[in-house]
Amino acid sequence: MAQMEPDFILSQDEINRSPLISYRATLAYEKNLPTYSNTVQLMWWLQKADIERLLYYDDLIPVSLDYANGLVDEYAPLSSVAKIDYLNATVALRQGNYQLALGFFQAAIEKAQRIGDNALFIRAKGDYSYTLSQTDAYSNSITHLKEAYLIAFANNDLGLIAELYEIYGSIYSYIEDNEKAEEYYLKALERYEKLGYQVQRADALYGLATIYRDWGKPQRAIDKYNLYLEQVQVFENPRQDFFGYYGLGTTHQIVGDCTAALKVIQQALNYPGAGDFKAELYKSRALCLVKQGNYQQAKDAHKNATVLIEKYPELIGTTWHISLFYIEAQIANGEGNHERAYTLMHRYHQQHKQLIEKRNSEKLSQQRMSLEASLRQQEKSLMPSVEEINALNAARQQDNKSLRYSVYVLATILFAILLIAFVMQLRANRKMRKLSITDELSGLFNRRYTFEYLRSLLDEPENEKHNFAIAMFDIDNFKQLNDAFGHPFGDYVIRQIAKIAQSQLRKGDVFGRIGGEEFMCVLPRTDKKQALFITERILEKIRTQKFVAKNKEHMPIKVTMSAGIASINATNRQNNGLYLQADQALYEAKKAGKDCIVCAQDKTDET
């Protein structure tokens, strides 16, 4: 009995609260291991490996697992074998070998289910869900995550619930629902702080920082990454330092501070880290080198990123992979090879659009599932009333007229309730449809709807297709406006521009926000000359609008926009490149000094 319950066994809560102290206490028993049975030695190695997992001692976990595997025999508890599967899956996940990780997690889930180990089942199920999300399998991922969450909630395990909140946050960030991602990460962070879980708290801070980076809130991201680096110093683990510098480096690159970015990226590359994350660092380095005009070194960085990404077959076709085309296009464009740049950029936009459509489709599918479940619940709650009325009607067929009238009234009330529920459901569906096509900040159509509308025009048969044009708009010096007057002022500018543009358009014209400060206008039944007139009218209205920065003594600020136009007419039926033509025209307008319009194809006649 003494050997079956040795002194070194620690609870998961103890380990989570003080992982370093727990690790040292575990190591103190190593010299006495030979005095224990194989089963107890196996328990020791698995506890050691589990704490190494928590502390990101990734080089030591395989060593501990090798010793543990050597102790597995016919008498080994199934719980220990299940934990070996789980730890092997963690190693594979951190190495970027997603298919291998999924296989091990699945094995751990099946064994944990057989022996009723809810904690291991929940953790393995949650990590299995996270791994699926890394391969863009979001619908599948959320299905497994919901199952894990229901069991964790039923068991009232606050630590595991917090871990699942963190995974929810990660998945929502990948499908670009930043508000939901922030909500779940904040929930996880709050619970970790209450529980006193140090490593998990640092991980939640890192997740928040990454959301803010991708959400266009760089200062928040930098603050959180620095806080994360402070938190992990106590663990003295270079792998955790790698993630902090990785986040800082990519954030500096996104905001265009390439001097800081290249310095921090080099710091990160000096630390041990996962290959897929190092590939992202090389991509950021390549983009900064392109910006600095150092194309040869940019090629080298792009090559390093490509080699690393190709080691992970699961990443081919995902965002991780297709962004390589964008970087290669930037290098080609910088070197003057514009034809190759155009081909690569077109390939990137096509695949990126498909990914966005897939993600939006999955999100809408999930929302529909949620609404359908709500409707089923309403029907279930109303079912007893229906059965009661039917039974009453059958039993009282010969009753007097007043009783029949009462049944009729009850049936009418029930019908009214069902009708109200149906109308409410219909309104909810309409509201959800509106939300799915609307940009929240500006009130304009969002990127997905705008491109769908453009595609519907491009897909018309040749004999039905009329003249139409598109105009791309970009706010000039928008980053400087944000830096000088704050992000609330930038949001105010975007909303005002949306109102001005809509006031100048005709019925049937579609004006959408497709990026941070970038807009696209689709103009059916419009030739190039008309498009130029409409576009100039919008730019003139914005030029003369007084934008007031409240934090700068209500001083009026001049805001301008640049625009690029591309059109389809009887002599130009080249559909595929219309968006890219307008985008290139916009780029040339920027080069020409901004606050102007460039028309694609005939760039010399109207600029």
Task: Please explain how this structure is put together.
This protein is mainly alpha-helical and 607 residues long. Helices cover 69% and strands 6% of the residues. The chain has helices spanning 12-17, 19-27, 38-54, 61-70, 78-94, 98-115, 118-134, 138-155, 158-174, 178-195, 198-214, 218-232, 238-254, 258-269, 275-291, 295-309, 319-334, 338-395, 401-437, 447-458, 478-485, 487-503, 528-544, 578-591; strands at residues 468-475, 510-513, 518-524, 547-549, 555-557, 561-568, 597-599. Strands 2-3-1-6-7 form a five-stranded mixed beta sheet, sandwiched between helices. The longest helix has 58 residues, at 338-395. The protein is globular, with a radius of gyration of 30 Å. It starts with 11 loop residues before the first helix and ends in an 8-residue tail after the last strand. Residues 367-390 and 603-607 have low confidence and may be disordered.
Straight-line distance between termini: 88 Å
Strand order of the largest sheet: 2-3-1-6-7
Proportion of residues in extended strands: 5-15%
Number of helices: 24
Q: What percent of residues adopt helix (DSSP H or I)? A: 55-70%
Radius of gyration: 30 Å
Shape: globular
| Class computed from helices, strands and strand pairing | mainly alpha
Mean pLDDT: 83
Poorly predicted sequence stretches spanning 5 or more consecutive residues:
367-390, 603-607
Biggest sheet overview: 5 strands, mixed
Total beta strand runs = 7
